[in-house]
Amino acid sequence: MTTLKNRPNTALLVVDVQNGVVREAHERDAVVANVASVVDTARREQVPVIWVRHSDEELAAGSDDWRIVPELTPGDAEALVEKNYGDAFEDTTLETVLSGLGVGRLVVVGAETDACIRSTLHGAFARGYDATLVSDAHTTGDRTPWGAPPPDQVIAHTNLYWTYQTAPGRTAGTVKTKEVDFGTPS
User: Fold this and answer.
1) How far apart are CA 56 and CA 102, in angstroms?
2) Which of 181, 172, 179, 138 is nearest to 156 (CA)?
3) What is the phi-psi region of residue 42: left when phi exceeds 0, alpha when psi lies from -120 to 50, beta otherwise?
4) Is the pLDDT of residue 185 over 90?
5) Which of 51, 63, 145, 167 would you call most buried, defined as having the most Cβ atoms within 10 angstroms of its Cβ?
6) Which is nearest to 131 in space by CA: 88, 90, 68, 91?
7) Rg of the chain's alpha carbons, rounded to an integer?
8) What is the helix, strand, coil percentage profile of the chain, to 5?
9) pLDDT tens digits for 150-182?
10) Distances (CA, A) of 42 to 35, 47, 144, 162, 174
11) For 62, left (φ over 0), alpha (ψ -120 to 50), or beta?
């Protein structure tokens, strides 16, 4: 369904599951376990797994906070995209990696729901990709002191609106970890 020509493949995009990003995230352990499960499924089905790692002034490259959580280990042959902005496509090698793999559909997991996940989903969709969010494999921290809703509501709202996201020639939607299908979207 993607609007990208000659891009029949699907990839798993694992966004910012880093120590400093998810340390105090909502349901951290359950979400990381779900991410690990989706990664295992992708590997078993020989679907490319692409890791995205954020760095900025508060998340210094090379620091312990910057490292991917110890429960997850990128494979030697799996791409690792470094980013400095919310949208994983912005000023990174992600598009080159996906193009080289013939990917037109992304399955997205990671953190943070209300920042990098939303930015990357919208960035993918606007660039012509089909984009599926794994509804129980993304999380965020508590931003209520700054006026945001509680994390569970942020996650629920993101799942709700991404389920019904539409655009010409593209598909969006959400699935639970146990329902992830890396085959062609129906």
Assistant:
1) 30
2) 138
3) alpha
4) no
5) 51
6) 88
7) 15
8) 35, 25, 40
9) 999 999 999 999 999 999 999 999 999 999 999
10) 11, 5, 35, 22, 17
11) left
pLDDT in tens, 72-85: 999 999 999 999 99
Residue with tokens 């945001």: 148
Closest CA to 47 of 131, 105, 118, 120: 105
Task: Scan for tokens 């494979």, then name that residue.
Answer: 75
**CB-based contacts of 71-78 (< 8 A; 24+ apart in sequence):** 71/32, 71/33, 71/36, 72/14, 72/17, 72/32, 72/35, 72/36, 72/39, 74/49, 75/43, 75/49, 78/48, 78/49, 78/50, 78/51
Tokens for 93, please give them.
């090698």
Residues 51 and 78 sit within 8 Å (Cβ to Cβ) = yes
Give the DSSP letter string of 50-111: EEEEE-BTTB-TTSTTTSBPTT----TTS-EEEESSSSTTTTSSHHHHHHHTTEEEEEEEEE
- How is residue 172 written in tokens? 């969006």
Torsion of CA 173, 175, 179, 184, to 10 degrees: 20
Do 124 and 131 meet the contact criterion of CB atoms below 8 Å apart? yes
